[in-house]
Design a protein that fits this description.
single chain, 315 residues, alpha/beta, 7-stranded parallel β-sheet, 5-stranded antiparallel β-sheet
Length: 315
Amino acid sequence: MEAIITIVGFLGAGKTTLLRHLMTSYINMGWNPFIVLNDYENANLDVLQLTDKIDPKWIRALTGSCICCSGINELRDHVNRIPERPNGITLIEANGTSDACSLMEFLGVGLNDRFLPPIQVSVVDVKNWQKREEYNELESNQIQVSSLIILTHIARIAKSRKTIVIRELRLLNPFAKILTMDEIDIKLLPELLPSKNTAQKLDHQKAHWSSCSSDLPRLPDLDCIYDICHALPKRLLRVKGCTKIGDEKRYTYFERNPDGSVFVRPFNGMPITGSKLLTIGPGSEILLLEKVIETSLIAANIRLQLKTDDNENLR
């Protein structure tokens, strides 16, 4: 029977990093993973970052649906249509605001008999755990019915902080194994059993956030990315985008995590929806995105003019 591993966790906790690690490890061991990626806006951006390791036909993107409620039927249908294959395993990454308890309650209902009961793996950002203010309840909900909890963002974290976080996690879910990514034995994941923990009920509307996207033009320089990310308000807990910079032929991908850190890296392939700027969180509005993009372009023009003036002064 084929195991289903569902990865949950708050925005920016490291779910996609864990997904890539598991996917690559299983492929190297001769397994045949099938990937399902869910996000509010343009999940295809993340899909393309996995296709260097796996054929795109073994990946499905679910965009714009909440797979813990309105999108659960679509998710279940996708899973039931996954082709049978030797050494198959299904890996599902839920969006960062999923009601993880509801997801596990409904996902296992109506799956084909060839699948094992789904198990849940939660990713916990040790650095920012329970520092989400009004979103703390949602974050704690995401670990309560997990069979395994993976700790991330532990570099340069005090041992006392890690100890406190583990203690709090065990109070919320005493049955879950707690490991770091380096400690995972992937051969044992398919043998995990669904959690026996009783979860506290979450007001499901707390898992429903606004999101939006806007076309993103070719940006004159890399500083535009940082200008955009820093200009967008903190209430937007996730910012990501993809575009070309200057005269470069390749696309560049960027994201801003809830703690404000910005990461930039080359994009694998060509985004099928074109260059985009995406946001998730209260107040996501296209007009806001367009204004921030326009402001960043004005700033780039000023930088270019200043550089031109400096070069002329040196002559």
